[in-house]
Amino acid sequence: MKLKDKNVLVTGAAGFIGSNLTDKLLEIGAEVIGLDNLFNGRIENLEEALKNKNFQFHKGDIRDINFLLDILKDIDIVFHEAAFTSVPQSVKMPESCNDVNVNGTLNLLNAARKKDVEKIIFASSSSVYGDTPTLPKKEDMPRLPISPYGVSKLACEAYMQAFHQVYGLKTLSLRYFNVFGPRQKDSPYSGVIAIWLGRIINNEDLIIFGDGEQSRDFTYIKDVVQANLMAAEYDVSGEILNVGAGSPITLNDLAKLILNLTDKKNLKLIYTDPRPGDILHSYADISKAKKIIGFQPEYDQEQGLRDYFIWYCKKYNVNLKIN
Ligand code: UD2
Predict the structure, then answer these.
(1) Domains of the chain, first to last
(2) Is 80 exposed, middle or buried (0-12, 13-18, 19+ CB in 10 A)?
(3) 149 part of the active site
(4) Which of 47, 198, 236, 301 is most deeply packed, by most CB within 10 A?
């Protein structure tokens, strides 16, 4: 499906991933409706989109079926990015996580089926794999999530597949691996890179949960957006695909890389207790996404970090030397 001139809904459009995706969809000529309840999302993320005549924003919640039925008329394709997004917060509030992620997604699927939406692309997560030792993670490996967040994303994937099987709705789940980049918030519940950037700007030492030998496959936002476009454009459905950089890094090495890039080698790494619900290693095998939708990440971590930091300094008028 070519996205130009298509009617597209982005849930979670004011969030980090949703807003980046919205901007790209508008750039390629889609008509975009953005939906967000603005709990986590920020309207400032849609500053550019709101100037575009092909964009409409609606404040509302994916748990509200009447709202969805209204919004979904005439929509061809949905990018479902709205979510309860934090692993540690899901450990504190498992019911809320389940309510937003599972009930909200089921609601969206039901509304999409009733309104004859053609395709839904779902933002899943590498957290569905849990702490199984085999690396890299392949889509057909056992899924044994260890956090309520991971469980909720796995349940949504299963619903995506069931709706594909039973109702013929085209669905596709993309398992994102630690996405980072512009518009990621610096809050206690955001990703480690955004948190560390905030601390670096304030000249604060970096906190590491555990011994720092855990690893993640940090993936730059532009590659994630690209994967979504390809998932929409290729005639493929009923699949689950990893979307990662395919190159893991330990937290210790990431900290060194970031301190070097920002010329802050004077800052220290402070080690503290591991975080409950954390997995140890996460590393994507992306061969299936390459084969099925032609996905090929363009950013390595250093390039992505540099781009992100430069964007941040410009946006917030921060004076930080980037090497
Ligand atoms: C990220 C995503 C989550 C999900 C998951 C998939 C975010 C906020 N969450 O969870 O949505 O897709 O990936 O695996 O992006 N850490 C520190 N110091 C800090 C903050 C974090 O050491 O100040 C550690 C943390 O304990 C973990 C690693 O950094 O080992 C990554 O943490 P995260 O919160 O950035 O992301 P993760 O993997 O929990």
Answers:
(1) 7-179+218-243 (3.40.50.720), 181-216+248-282+300-316 (3.90.25.10)
(2) buried
(3) yes
(4) 301
